[in-house]
Design goal:
By secondary structure, the protein is α/β, with parallel strands linked by helices. Helix content is about 50%, strand content about 15%. The chain contains 12 helices and 8 strands. An 8-stranded parallel beta sheet has the order 1-2-3-4-5-6-7-8. Helix 8 links the parallel strand 5 and strand 6. It is globular. The relative contact order is 0.12.
Length: about 300
Amino acid sequence: MLSSTKAVVNALLVVFFLTMVIFSPNIIDFAYFTFLFYFLWKLKLLWYLLLSIFLFYNYIGDDFMLIDTHLHLVLEDYDIDEVIANALENGVKYLILGSSSVDDNKLNIDLASRYNNVFTTIGYHPSEASLISDGDLSFLKSAVENEKVVGIGEIGLDYHYGNEDRDLQISLFRKQLDIAQEYDVPVVIHTRDAFLDTYNILKEYKLRGVIHCFSGSLETAKMYMSLGYYLGIGGVVMFKNSKLKDVIREIGISKVVFETDSPYLSPFRGEKNEPSNVRYICDFVADLLDMSSSEVEKITSSNATVLFDLCI
């Protein structure tokens, strides 16, 4: 009886192994499953069963998930439940809200507290530089320890409309970087027409973070990455004349996370952006790099999980 049961289990393991080989996205996974199968074959019946169940749920029963690492749901008249349902339907399981003002911070913390799969960052956009008080900065210190708050952002410098308030922007930027360093949390960096100031200031800190909505050159990408920063890649990469495609071909996705910046920058011109569009961004990048979507999904989601220390 035992021998026949063992034969059935062995047969099932062969099927399991062949399934893993067929669907392995690369040679590393193939080698891993071959190595694993050899040792499974040597173990006793109980371990066959336990490990087979474990592997089934980790490799077949639960696909890797996509993460939208930056979006603004409170800035538009979204039906939040519908947006989240659409995202889940497209495999986008987790959302990280981006904050930019006093009101944003409070609304996003409240929103994140109501959904298990929603997190938020908190911070003040450079356009708010003249409005932020010491009390507002103290709020960041008290709120950053909330379990649904995963970073400080979006913060940074923006000289697109001029740099008359440059000193105010830099002062606010540094104060928020100080808070991130004190509480050991990642930062989400907004920078527009302010590369040198942004880069030189970030060099002074030992922080981890992401360059939100990155659309710069290969050189600037490498400079940010040399500091340990990830690049937030969104719908811009899908724009017809976007040079970001060439940058991605050169740097790959080892330091990339996906974002939508909803409701802005939809990959489909004229449409309001939604987190569900991360699926299309992922598929586009996969085609660009001649990779499988599942492999791109796995790498970028792992990047986001590590960067923001997500408990998922």
